[in-house]
Design goal:
The chain is mainly alpha-helical. The chain contains eight helices and three strands. A hairpin with a 6-residue loop joins strand 2 and strand 3. The longest helix has 33 residues. The protein is extended, with a radius of gyration of 22 Å.
Length: 189
């Protein structure tokens, strides 16, 4: 079931991927090659996070390419002034400069504290009805994750520390995330 879903998502996003790659084929190819190399020949953690590694390698290469002649064209910093060799957007660089690097990534009004101050039973019931099924999906996903991690690491995490422990940790982390209205889960194990 997972394979066809991933293929469908990939095919849906393929045109967007081609359009993004066309902005700088050199960086795009470096990104893909890095991800493939990490996936095929990587060991342990490197094999688990090829996406993050390939993005970091691409950014480092793009920064290195700034050593060579570059110009700003239509709001992008481009190699040799060629708009098909974009390195960075000036807007992105400004956003990085203005980012709040230290602080909470949420506002109190977006947390459970807001719900307690302005209690509305219909909001609570809507949240329960729409979010509760996701908890069941995360249980199935967790078992798949633990199985994949066990396979990658060569250790049986289903028996040691045990599925009951990892599932409890994942559940507690998901509950903690829900206090900040986050649909994602934080893995504590």
């Amino acid at each position: 079931m997972t394979g066809p879903i991933i293929i469908s998502i990939g095919l849906t996003l393929s045109q967007n991927a081609i359009n993004n790659c066309a902005k700088n084929w050199l960086i795009s190819i470096i990104t893909v090659v890095t991800a493939v190399v990490c996936n095929i020949w990587g060991k342990g953690l490197i094999r688990i996070i090829p996406g993050i590694i390939s993005i970091l390698v691409s950014v480092v290469v793009a920064i290195f390419l700034l050593v060579f002649p570059h110009e700003t064209v239509e709001g992008y910093i481009c190699m040799g002034g060629n708009k098909n060799l974009r390195l960075f957007s000036e807007g992105d660089i400004e956003s990085i400069k203005k980012a709040a690097w230290i602080g909470f990534p949420f506002k109190v009004d977006n947390t459970i504290i807001y719900v307690f101050k302005h209690f509305d039973i219909s909001l609570v019931m809507t949240a329960i009805v729409t979010i509760a099924p996701i908890a069941f999906v995360t249980i199935v996903e967790h078992i798949g994750d633990i199985s994949a991690i066990s396979s990658t690491c060569g250790r049986n995490f289903l028996s040691n520390p045990g599925l009951h422990r990892t599932l409890t940790g994942d559940g507690l982390a998901t509950i903690l995330a829900s206090f900040f209205w986050s649909p994602c889960q934080y893995h504590l194990w």
